[in-house]
Amino acid sequence: MAFGEFDLIDTYFTHRWPKRDDVVKGVGDDAAILTLPSDSELIIATDTMVSGVHFDEQMPARAVGHKVAAVNLSDLAAMGAEPAWLSLALTLPEMDQEWLEGFSHGLREICDYYDCHLIGGDTTKGPLTLTVTAHGFVPQGTALRRDGAKPGDWIYVSGSIGDAGLALAAQQRKVQISDSHYRRVLERLYFPSPRVALGQALRDIASSAIDISDGLKADLGHILQASNVGARVDVDELPLSLALTESVTAEDAIRYALHSGDDYELCFTVPESRRGVFDTVLARHPAKPTCIGRITSEANKLRLERNEEPWQGADEKGGYDHFG
User: Fold this and answer.
1) By CB count within 10 A, which of 94, 186, 294, 297 is most buried?
2) Which reactions are catalysed by this chain (predicted)?
């Protein structure tokens, strides 16, 4: 008997998944039935990954499963949300059970870690395309947004940035790096860690936030536009990994940090009045944030500086744009 669509769903996406008490009905009906906690607001994010655009045949199926969930969970993290449920729309060119086993394993691993329940979706035949919708919630009125930054707020970035861009460049043979550094940055590219705990910790502290998916310059620009403010960023303060600084020149390391995407760290702003609370709450956070600059009153003006002078590489284009 042929292995069909419903066998696929039953084998890879119905069993062995984390269960949540707030899922009344998940996979197996026309729609899911969920219970939202009282006094909460629902946060929803959707992202699509297309073969040949977001990944290629070099990317292991397990990594594809992890990343398609991680990029959505990173959006929830930027809103300060607690992840709860995922739905998956999966388009396959053919029935490849080995690929499906790896993909579902990677997806299930990250769902287990963040206590997410797969609640449904769709399967179709066509060019390999994956769309995940992630659902989470926040206490009413506490969601982080892009439009709250004010002049004088401090700008922070979690973790380190530029690593995923370096991995992609090395993969495309645009740069040569050591095997040890390549393994580290490839892990960042294939298995990003959404900063869910940090996002929740920032709910009563940060004035604005965004995840870094298209590059710091472009994503910080979204905060500036939404908040109608400007920013000064000291490029010498950008959080760079040893793998990045030992693999390329100092100027190129800054460019990777500013312009390459797929890091899925958080960029956020903190008012001066909340810095003491921020330092206390996040002093021991594993993705310890770095202060890189300050919000100004110049609407939509991002000034990149070194030693309080304009940085010479500042005129380069922004981050990734599908239609740019």
Assistant:
1) 186
2) thiamine phosphate + ATP = thiamine diphosphate + ADP
Q: Which residues are annotated as a binding site for Mg(2+)?
A: 30, 46-47, 75, 122, 211, 214
Three-state DSSP class for residue 94 = coil
Q: Let me know whether 178 and 127 are in one domain.
A: no
Return the amino acid letter for 210: I
Strongest mean pLDDT among 24-33, 255-264, 281-290: 255-264
Annotated binding site for substrate: 54, 262, 320
* Residues spanned by the domain of 249: 154-310
| Number of domains within the chain | 2
CA distance 203 to 43: 14
The structure's pTM equals 0.90
Residue 251: count other Cβ atoms within 10 Å of its Cβ: 11
Query: What pLDDT shows up at residue 182?
Result: 97
Q: What is the CATH number of the domain that holds 184?
A: 3.90.650.10
